[in-house]
Design brief:
This protein is mostly beta strands and about 100 residues long. It has a single domain, classed as Immunoglobulin-like (Sandwich), CATH 2.60.40. About 10% of the residues lie in helices and about 45% in strands. The chain has 1 helix and 8 strands, in the order H-E-E-E-E-E-E-E-E. An 8-stranded mixed beta sheet has the order 4-6-2-1-8-7-3-5, with no helix packed on it. Strand 1 and strand 2 form a beta hairpin. It is elongated and about 50 Å long. The N and C termini lie far apart (about 40 Å).
Length: about 100
């Protein structure tokens, strides 16, 4: 039981956050411990994303890639975006953190 609790307390190998940096600038951050390859932010259904990450590598422990996303008359900034990568657990639906 203690071994399982210890494993559950460890950070995930790959984990994601989408953080609002400033105005229309956002970061896709790998909060896990391992590098993720083939990372793609799926803009499907989110027409307000410009320069979405496509097939990039993001190191673990806070590595990130920036992209632009702005609200407009077409709709508000989404509350979540799908992220896929090479590996188990892919894809993931990641909440968008706003300032």
């Amino acid at each position: 039981m203690a071994d399982q609790q210890y494993r559950d307390s460890l950070p995930p190998p790959v984990g994601w956050e989408i953080q609002h940096v400033h105005k229309s600038k956002f970061q896709l951050v790998n909060v896990g411990t391992e590098t993720a390859t083939g990372v793609t932010l799926n803009p499907s259904g989110v027409p307000l994303i410009r320069q979405p990450p496509q097939d990039v590598t993001i190191r673990g422990n806070g590595g990130y890639v920036e992209f632009l996303m702005a609200g407009s008359n077409d709709g508000p900034i989404p509350t979540e975006i799908e992220v896929s990568w090479d590996g188990p657990g892919s894809p993931a639906i990641v909440p968008v953190q706003k300032l």
